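Quick one: structure for this chain?
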Amino acid sequence: MEHAPPFLASLVLGLAFAFAFGIAARMLRMPPLVGYLVAGVAIGPNTPGVIIDGEFTRTLAEVGVGLLLFGVGLHFRAQDLLAVWRVAVPGATAQVAVGMLLGAALGMALPGLSFGTALVFGLALAIASTAVATRALEERGQLSGEAARIAMGWLVLQDLIVVLGLVLLPAAAGQQGDGLGLSILIAVAKLVAFAALMLIVGRRLLPWALARVARSGSRELFTLSVVVVALGVAFGATTLFGVSFALGAFFAGVVLGESDLGHQAAAETLPLQRIFAAIFFVSVGMLLNPATVLDAPFTSLLALAVVLVGTGGATFVLLVLLRTPPKTAAIVAAALAQIGEFSFVLMELAIGQGILPAALRGPILLGSFGAILLMPLTFRLLTGLGSRMRGRILPARDARGRFVATLPRMENHAILIGYGRVGVLVAAALRRHNLPFIVIEDDRKRAEMLRGQGLPVLWGNGTQPEMLEAAHAERARLVIVTLPLAWEARRVVELARAANPRIVVTVRAHQDAEVDWLHDLDATGLAVMGEREVALGIADFALQRMGVASSTSQATVDVLRKRRVADAATAGLGV
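Got it. Here's what it folds into:
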């Protein structure tokens, strides 16, 4: 009997354990990330039982980090930072400084750590996880509110600080005095050269190339091309410029994110990001040696305290000082009171470069484990504190304008999904009355044509949440679904209602069951069956030509429209 290759066994077992422990974490009302980390501990070399190939897993994990940062880059917008810059820039900078100094104070209390090494340890304890924060806000229905905008701006600043750290750490490793300064200068010069190449050449070349692939109409080729761009740019950055793999992927995401391809690229790569991110967290869990945590339990608990105070507590205090409403400050602080993927990346790089001792891996990992496990309690405590503080401090002046101003966004608009034979007539009616609407169209050539006509259009598939988010579904009044497939229409309706429970829905239907489904979901909505509308149009014309008054004819049509086809055929009209 042939045995599976060790690499294949490692991949299958790693994913299977991640799934099993992720399910267990969700059953315990914890983020799946916790399950992935525990799965890594379970199959790692430091615990008895199943052991998988760590080197292969770390290679896949590096791909996961690259795709993760590629996704961050796709969503990175300079305007997002500008929208909340009066809060995010000073607040996030001060918070990272506070957390880093608290961590450094803990590090200096440990034997054998210099001040510089202790600062790196502190930085690893001061950076919140974007993935965990976003998930926490989403679960509490806060992802589209003011708290989310501040949190995203805050996280962008933290990400930029980590990116700078990823550049400087390899340069600083093993260098002293003039050598250190020269190494840092060379590293920064390489980064600037790579960034300039991406912004000058890549900014034009990559979107142009992907647009050509998109016009081919093949979703498979477009998905493949996005992955090739993400990993190819990352590999080129490492090989040619000495820039980290993750940072190269981040720049590729930033470049694509500025184009109209960004939303669909994010949607196409999201499943891969989730899978490889799971492998990344499994690989991190494999690094944890429970014995090292038991060897230094006091240090591990203090690291957890630094995370909660230096990130969560400092964020809350700073936001209140910046005159953000306490309730909003509490939500942001609770979402950020944890550390995750970027802390792990920084930690592994520092340990690999010999800057941090491997013994500090346990306290950092326990700080992440504990903070994520305590998030429900953290939310409860901080939001309670924010409620008690309401009215006891000066209210923020023009909080949405002066302190957390947002860019102009379309509101009370319609979202038209699909611009085929049905969508084109709907759009014509909306344009005739100058009503605001956004089109989501997955045919690249058609989307480019609409953009040339001055219509607000997003290219991509409307069944993916990123597209509805980009169309500001949470602010829309109406979503019009003209897609021909029933499952696609249902998916869009579910996403739209999740983003905005008050949104009104109208869909193109082909069967009575689809009409009944929408009516049960939203009595104010409308499901239109093509064949029925053809029949009703003919019936209306026939009745009026036979002498029935137009108002009576319209009333008859309205009654028939609300009935199933079989019922209309057998029941008396009673009009």
